[in-house]
Amino acid sequence: MLAENLKTVRENITEACRRANRDPSEVTLVAVSKTKPEADIQEIYGQGVRDFGENYVQELVEKIDHLPGDIRWHMIGHLQRNKVKYLARRADSIALIHSVDTYRLAEEINIQAKKNKRIIDILVEVNIADEDSKFGISREDALSLIQDIAGLDGIHIRGLMTSAPNVKNAEENRAYFRSIKALAVDINSRNIDNVEMDILSMGMTNDYQIAIEEGSTMVRVGTAIFGARDYHRKS
Ligand SMILES: *Cc1c(COP(=O)(O)O)cnc(C)c1O
User: Fold this and answer.
1) CA 30 to ligand 1: nearest atom
2) Domain annotation covers residue 235
3) How many angstroms separate the alpha carbon of residue 117 from the centre of ligand 1?
């Protein structure tokens, strides 16, 4: 069942790449497993997926401790500064923090990275549609935040992350994805020290195919793989 879901997602990714003349190897699928039990993750792991995304630090840390050591974990949810230390202690298992949107949070990640003698890869989260309900820096302020964070040598900026609005027709988000891609190209052209723009984390269950057509290199897909989430159930 989950394997079937995964197969469909992988086929859709390949198809979207083909439409955009892109090589599917340019797009990493992050299976978003928040609230889902470890058995579900094991099943998808068994199908060859190694990148998993989680939103809550405590849940992420427990899963890191229980699941195979070669999983690349992605912290995709809003991150509180007082939780950063728990992630930094497991920096070897955490591929990327996608959700950095303030200098204060970056500073704390930098401190904890140094304590653990690591450099932590991050993305800067952009609130592309200026939605009140979402975290992320505005498009206008992204460059100056990135210039500030670039000075922190325990952190390495790898690109941008965004969550587009929850719309009925994913086509409505195409312009947002295009706008993030353009922002990344602009920032990249400035050749800022310690800043790469090789990762664009955008596209979720509802819109990952459109996001890929517009240049996403990392899609974060939960529901289409694991089914709907039940937040009342303890995973
Ligand atoms: C939950 C979540 C996802 C996955 O969403 P689906 O619609 O289930 O694919 C992706 N990104 C973030 C930041 C999330 O919180």
Assistant:
1) 10
2) no
3) 31
Q: For residue 233, is it within any domain?
A: no
Q: For position 90, which CATH number holds?
A: 3.20.20.10
pLDDT digits (tens, 9 = 90+) for 14-35: 999 999 999 999 999 999 999 9
pLDDT digits (tens, 9 = 90+) for 133-182: 999 999 999 999 999 999 999 999 999 999 999 999 999 999 999 999 99
Q: So what's the pLDDT on residue 231?
A: 78
Closest to 162 in 3D by CA, of 188, 198, 192, 199:
199
Number of C-beta neighbours around residue 217 at 10 A? 21
Angle at 103 between CA 105 and CA 182, to 5 degrees: 110
Structural domain contains residue 63:
yes
**230 CA from centroid of ligand 1 (Å):** 13
Distance 190 CA to ligand 1 centre (A): 31
Report the alpha-carbon distance of residue 218 to residue 235 in Å, rounded.
25
Q: Is residue 153 part of a domain?
A: yes
Which atom of ligand 1 is found nearest the CA of 55? 15
The model scores a pTM over 0.85: yes
Residue 232: pLDDT over 80: no
Q: Which residue puts its alpha carbon closest to atom 10 of ligand 1?
A: 220
Q: How far apart, in whole angstroms, are the C-alpha atoms of residue 75 and residue 94?
A: 7
Residues near ligand 1 with C-beta < 6 Å?
A: 32, 34, 55, 76-77, 163, 204-206, 220-224
Ligand 1 centre and the CA of 109: distance in Å? 23
- Domain holding 153, by residue range, is 2-226
pLDDT for the residue numbered 235: 45
